[in-house]
Backbone:
């Protein structure tokens, strides 16, 4: 049997859970099962039937309110009025592809490129993060002349043929590409190294050497700078510099997957990679840039992109269409005008402190780390050995769902709560989250 997907299977509904549902939701789940492909998954042993969202809150079909501590796709909050108005207004005027002149895509490109290092001066648009990372891999391979891509051991970068081949988090049922190499994530909690940056650079170097030994030319390193699927590993800031130096010494391309770390999420910088003092060759983004509207992008240094774009035309039918770009413009404007990066830093800092204090009261909490409104809350069976406690983490997630707080797990052991709310999350929501988590930890300890 293949190993399960850490991002799909660890917290999913299964047919044997159906008896827990009321008649309405049991029928809906059964209809879904009959009509949708078997690859789909639902969250929770008792799935949540959601019908409405606003800001950081969601409501189910019975009118019960939930706190969303997981959904970064609705980056500035569910159903944000600015996005709704921008999309509706543009949809009423025109929506078409990018082979006609239209001002929005140019205006947005100027505005977004202004947030990036000056060396990154070209933009391309697609509809999803998977497409952005797929294109980025093609660009890296064209620029380097190689095929080998290095990612971390629990990375997730997409669902296309190329990106699933560099996404070990999808589980062993999805084979990795023969030219993919894996490195352990820079986990300060579990890696005993005096300098995490030098340690990580050595891991990258070892895999470049392995590629060479097998006749594979190195193309690039692709990482999410908060190592989200690896268990949320934000620090210490700066530890990517040495690894990026290794990549460049070997003629490779550094791709920063900013689908999750970007757009002010870390609070410390607008882009996750900026916390490390590095300039990527390619930056990719996903649907959070449009608050869930299908829009994503690739932003690159012109010389890096040239090896691809000078040889091949590229056309993504509705990538960068006026309606999706209107959503992206609204998101960027809200982040900047409402100071959401600083908000993420401030409120995220308060939340991190509250969660760390909670951790001192529960032996099951091994580590609490984060940057802005992106926090990893790691559960262990033993603090001394740091043995991961996956079952406890899953039980805690279910206990939180019962207390109307929605989140999930991450990391290779499935034992890290991934706390990543919309940026609409407020200081006033901290008590709800921390109180529910306190109760969930207590209840699951009694079960043990």
Residues:
């Amino acid at each position: 049997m293949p190993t399960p997907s850490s991002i799909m299977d660890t917290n999913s509904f299964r047919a044997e859970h159906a008896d827990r549902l009321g008649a309405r939701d049991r029928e809906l789940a059964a209809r879904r099962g009959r009509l949708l492909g078997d690859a789909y998954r639902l969250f929770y042993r008792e799935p949540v039937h959601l019908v409405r969202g606003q800001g950081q809150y969601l409501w189910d079909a019975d009118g019960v309110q939930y706190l969303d501590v997981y959904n970064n796709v609705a980056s500035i909050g569910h159903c944000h009025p600015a996005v709704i108005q921008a999309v509706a207004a543009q949809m009423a005027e025109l929506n078409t592809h990018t082979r006609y002149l239209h001002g929005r895509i140019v205006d947005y490109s100027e505005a977004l490129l202004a947030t990036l290092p000056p060396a990154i001066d070209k933009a391309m648009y697609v509809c999803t993060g998977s497409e952005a990372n797929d294109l980025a891999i093609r660009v890296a391979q064209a620029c380097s002349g190689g095929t080998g891509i290095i990612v971390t051991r629990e990375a997730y970068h997409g669902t296309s043929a190329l990106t699933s081949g560099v996404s070990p988090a999808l589980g062993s049922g999805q084979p990795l590409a023969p030219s993919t190499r894996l490195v352990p994530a820079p986990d300060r909690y579990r890696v005993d190294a005096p300098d995490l940056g030098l340690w990580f650079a050595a891991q990258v170097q070892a895999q470049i050497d392995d590629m060479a030994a097998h006749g594979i030319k190195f193309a690039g390193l692709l990482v999410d700078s908060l190592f989200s699927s690896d268990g949320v590993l934000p620090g210490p800031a700066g530890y990517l510099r040495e690894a990026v130096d290794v990549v460049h010494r070997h003629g490779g391309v550094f791709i920063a997957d900013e689908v999750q770390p970007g757009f002010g999420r870390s609070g410390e910088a607008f882009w996750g990679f900026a916390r490390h003092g590095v300039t990527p060759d390619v930056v990719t983004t996903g649907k959070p840039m449009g608050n869930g509207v299908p829009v994503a992008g690739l932003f690159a240094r012109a010389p890096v992109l040239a090896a691809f774009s000078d040889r091949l035309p590229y056309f993504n039918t509705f990538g960068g269409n006026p309606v999706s770009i209107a959503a992206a413009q609204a998101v960027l404007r809200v982040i900047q005008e409402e100071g959401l990066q600083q908000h993420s830093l401030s409120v995220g800092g308060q939340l991190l402190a509250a969660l760390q204090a909670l951790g001192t009261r529960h032996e099951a909490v091994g580590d609490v780390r984060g940057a802005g409104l992106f926090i990893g809350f790691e559960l262990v069976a033993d603090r001394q050995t740091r043995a991961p406690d996956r079952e406890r983490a899953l039980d805690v997630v279910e206990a939180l769902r019962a207390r109307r707080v929605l989140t999930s797990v991450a990391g290779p052991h499935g034992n890290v709560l991934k706390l990543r709310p919309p940026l609409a999350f407020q200081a006033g929501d901290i008590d709800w989250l921390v109180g529910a988590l306190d109760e969930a930890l207590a209840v699951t300890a009694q079960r043990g």
Observations:
- Residues 81-337 form a domain with the Aspartate Aminotransferase; domain 2 fold (CATH 3.40.640.10).
- The CA atoms of residues 103 and 322 lie 9 Å apart.
- The chain has two domains: 48-78+340-447, 81-337.
